[in-house]
Amino acid sequence: MSLEARLQSASADFQKLQAEYSNAVEARQRLDAQLSENELVRKEFTQLTPDNTVYKMIGPVLVKQEQGEAKGNVEKRLDFIRGEIKRIEMQLKEIGEKSEKKKGELVEIQTQIQQRQQGPAGAPIAA
């Protein structure tokens, strides 16, 4: 494979990795928002008295729900979100490492192309 073809291929791979990284960052941001929202709900639950009624929205309808069940659901959701955040963090780290490796490969190929264009004595080749 020629250097130019390798450069194109490595560049396409690098751009793909950058897009994956961007998508993972967006997913991480969405999870952060969900985490904050659910922590706020959990905080609100601490202010409830046993006499307070909790409702859960199912579609367009509010349905009465037991406080304990609602609190349990929020805790499960928080655990799930935290697990997803850890998974996304690992994914971000992995993509970052692959990206750095691919960037090094790109620099190496570009250096080889420049050296080839300069010729064996270091002088530019006349076209």
From TrEMBL:
Residues 7-44, 78-105 form a coiled coil. GO terms for molecular function: protein-folding chaperone binding; unfolded protein binding. Keywords: Chaperone, Coiled coil. GO terms for biological process: chaperone-mediated protein complex assembly; protein folding. It comes from the Eukaryota. GO terms for cellular component: cytoplasm; prefoldin complex. The keyword Coiled coil applies. PANTHER family: PREFOLDIN SUBUNIT 6 (PTHR21431:SF0). Belongs to the prefoldin subunit beta family. This is Prefoldin subunit 6.
